[in-house]
Amino acid sequence: MFLSSERFPIRTVSFHPVVSVPSLSILSKNSLQDSFHAKLRFPLSVEDRVLFPDHLLLLVSDKIDEAEKLDCVYHKVLNHKDVVRQRVLSVDEFDGLRSVVRCPLPPWNYSAAAGLMWRGHGVDYSLSLRSNRTVHSWDRLVYEAAFDGKTAVVFAKGLNLRPHKESDPNRFMCQFGLKNSDEEDEGFVVMTEAIVAAQEVVRCSLPSSIRNNPDLAQGIRVTVVLASRNDVEHVRMPSAVRFRNSRSYDRRRNRMRQKENIAVPSVAKLYNSKSYQTKRNDGKFELCACTMLWNQAPALREWIMYHTWLGVERWFIYDNNSDDGIQDVIEELDFQDYNVSRHTWPWIKTQEAGFSHCALRARNECKWVGFFDVDEFYYFPRHHRRGLPGQNLLRSLVANYSSSRTIAEIRTACHSFGPSGLSSPPFQGVTVGYTCRLQSPERHKSIVRPDLLNETLLNVVHHFQLKKGFRYLNVPESSIIINHYKYQVWETFRAKFFRRVATYVVDWQENQNQGSKDRAPGLGTEAIEPPNWRKQFCEVWDTGLRDFVLANLADPATGSLPWEKSLL
């Protein structure tokens, strides 16, 4: 059997085997398009839709090349023949096999069950618009899933778990099945128990057939089931022997569990990505870095080039719906051998879950992974004062603890810098331009050993819960510090009003928690520049990192820095 579980009943509510044969298997879509000089385009199949507060996300089972020729199509609620078209906002590859298409919110009185049309082609796409009309709410949704050994790690919104603590896993189960979200027929599904649960992550055991043959589970949909009180009290299910000897009992039990258990809607599918599961043949990178960002493309060059010089060897960029040309910047950096990859992460306000996902992804490639933002820069004041070489300092620091039997996390305090009297972005970058900061450090950021994280993957403000028996190390501020260029010139800073990526941080336009340390003191809910902004957050003039950068990285002849774009 394709799926099996030794401990949980298999639900076969009208199981219909389906053989999927690619359309036009002899003459491929690409060759057919070539033969017609690309005048004929095939309809795009919309698998799922997710309604966000500011846009509509479509998950499509095709790779999309010419996104600029694609329109979002909306039907009127009471008249499906009344159709309006709007240009797509953006398109990205997603999870290797699907694409995500971001559409504007539907016009008033038009359905969010949008379809897609190629512009300028007179093909009737009504069938694709009528196929799957499900629209998921972002408030309650399973949105990602990943293999991790003999378990599946499932990411879900709307479980209302405590933000900073583990939760009772007995409240949940995972459901694996061959079904689409719009099908009334349940198809063929099996449930397994949750092992741990925290924040937006539920980890469940895999059915034995998937454990033994993960390649067979490519594209299988997975969701979280909220267990009924009866299942919570009796977590251990009857054995497989009991199933075979008491089929009528099983059928009755399955029907009862269908009614009692509540499955969270899901767009998540499992893919056996080789890059996540296979270890590097030539050994792991000593030091990697992961961040999540939105519209920070101009900051990437300085951040990546500087920290590469300090020893970071591999970069994971989780892009949270940027539309500022970030892909071009990353491709240029990767072309220059900076080993950067961009991961499309379309799920808004899920930074902690994204970091958990990144930790899984990086574990087989990296001994250490730093989780810090693109406006945060590591600095070694003691080495600078003594005139010691600075290259690869960060990698050397973590390498000292790579074989430690107790240290699994290195924490570094942050100094917050202000606009430093500037009114426009510094042309040589933030490390040189901003030189005035607050007196006391705020918070800290961490570099962790991803194979020594607690199985919940619980993380708060850039540090993780570790496996039992391991601890973190606080490094002295005199040895290493992070310059956090938090309060930049207003032109740059004001963007923070429009999107915060962290799950448990309120967007600044909302009139909530205005005393949070995440906000700038004294700011309201509107992006209006306060008086004397350029002089604020300035208690100590600190030119240490500026001098460190100019001494080590500036061109001796021109004084230019590696991240400055040539004017030629």
TrEMBL record:
Enzyme class: transferase
Membrane topology qualifier: Single-pass membrane protein
Keywords, comma-separated and alphabetical: Glycosyltransferase, Membrane, Transferase, Transmembrane, Transmembrane helix
Keyword Transferase included in the entry's annotation: yes
Domain of life from the UniProt record: Eukaryota
MF annotations from Gene Ontology: glycosyltransferase activity
Localization (cell): Membrane
Ranges in a coiled coil: none
GO cellular component: cytoplasm; membrane
Enzyme Commission no: 2.4.1.-
Pfam families: Glyco_transf_92
Family membership: Belongs to the glycosyltransferase 92 family.
PANTHER family according to UniProt: GLYCOSYLTRANSFERASE FAMILY 92 PROTEIN, GLYCOSYLTRANSFERASE FAMILY 92 PROTEIN RCOM_0530710
Protein name listed in UniProt: Glycosyltransferase family 92 protein
Native organism: Gossypium klotzschianum
